[in-house]
C-alpha cells in the first residue's frame, strides 16, 4: 500500500515537472523576444501587453490569485478548479514576459495544484487524501521553480497558515516525494536548480556577532514588509476605484509599469536575472534604496493592476537592494549576510513562511550556514503586521472541510 502511494505521488510530481519545464521554456522564448524593447518603446509595448492580459481575463474568466488557492485548500477540501488554467497560463505568460514584477510561482502552483485535484478525483479520493494530493502537486510546482524539494514542500504547506504551519502535516510526505520527482524532471529539461540561482560573495559564519546582525537585518526586512503591504493596499484601493472592464485596469497598469521601467530599468521583470546585477555591480546606496522602493511599487501595481504572477522572487530582489544599501552605509557589515538576511525577513513578513523561506534561500544562494537566515526569517515573521497581506491565511478551516 505504501509503495502504491509513493508511486502515485512521484508520478504526479513527474507530470508537474514536465508542465513546469514546458511553461518555463515557452516563457523564456517569449521573454527573449520582448526584451529587445526598452526605453521609450516600453510606453506602447507594456500597455498593449496589459490590454492582452485584460482581454484574456475578460473572455476566459478571472483565474484568481494565491488567496483563492488558500481558500480552496481550507474550505473546498483542497479542490482547485482546472477550468481557470487557460486564463492563468495565457495571462501569466504575457504578464511575466512583458516585464511585470511578478514571477511564475503563482501560475505554476495553480495549474499543478489543479492537476493534483484531477488525479484525486480519478482515484476517487476524499477528505484529507484529496487535499494531500492537491498539496503534493502544489509543492511540485513550487519546487520546479526554486529547485529546492524540501523548501518547496514546506512552502506549499506553510503559506496556508497565519500562525499554525503543521495543520496539514499529513501532506508533508506526499509533498516531499512529489517535489523530488518534479525537481529531477524540471532540472533535466531546463538545467536550472542544480547550481545556485544567484552567486553571492562567499561568507563564513565565524563570529557570534553575526547573529545579532542577522536579527537587525530581520528587523529591517520586517519594516520593509510593512512598507510593502502599505503600498500594496494603497494601490489596490486606487485600482478598485476604476469601475471599468478589467482590460482598462490592466492597460493602465501596463502604462504605469512602462514609465517606471523607463526610469528604473531593473524594476522590470521579476528579478530572477536582475538580482545578479544588484549583487555584482557597485551601485550607490541611494540608488539601491530608490530601486528597492521602485520595486515595491512595481510589484504592487503588477498584482493589483490585474497582471498575473507571484511576488516571492520580486520580494527577494527588494530585500537584496535594501540589505546591500545598509551594508554600504554602515562600514564593517558583511554585504552577503546583509542581503540574504534582509531577503529572508521581507519575504517571511509578507508571506508568513519563515521555515520554507530559510530553506529556499539557503538553496538559491548556496548560503550554507542557514541559521542566520532562520534568525532573520523569524524576526520578519514575528514582527509582521497582525493582518497578513494574504487575508485568507487568517481564516481557520473547518474540521470537516
Structural class: mainly alpha
Form type: globular
Poorly predicted sequence stretches spanning 5 or more consecutive residues: none
Question: Main beta sheet, described?
Answer: none
Terminal residue distance: 25 Å
Number of helices: 16
SSE string: HHHHHHHHHHHHHHHH
Average pLDDT figure: 88
Provide the helix percentage. Answer: 55-70%
> Radius of gyration over alpha carbons?
20 Å
Task: Give the tally of β-strands.
Answer: 0
> What proportion strand?
under 5%
Description:
Helix content is 70%, strand content 0%. It is mostly helical. The chain is built from 16 helices and no strands. Its main location: membrane. The chain crosses the membrane at residues 6-30, 42-61, 135-160, 172-194, 214-234, 246-264, 284-304, 311-330, 367-384. It is a multi-pass membrane protein.
Short description:
It holds the Pfam family Voltage_CLC. The protein has about 400 residues and is mostly helical.
List keywords for this structure.
401 residues; mainly alpha; 16 helices
Secondary-structure map:
Blueprint: H1 2-34, H2 42-60, H3 66-75, H4 85-98, H5 105-122, H6 127-146, H7 149-158, H8 172-190, H9 209-240, H10 246-263, H11 274-280, H12 285-304, H13 312-329, H14 335-351, H15 354-365, H16 371-382
InterPro entries: Cl-channel_core (IPR014743), ClC (IPR001807), ClC-type_chloride_channel (IPR050368)
Membrane topology: Multi-pass membrane protein
Protein name: Chloride channel protein
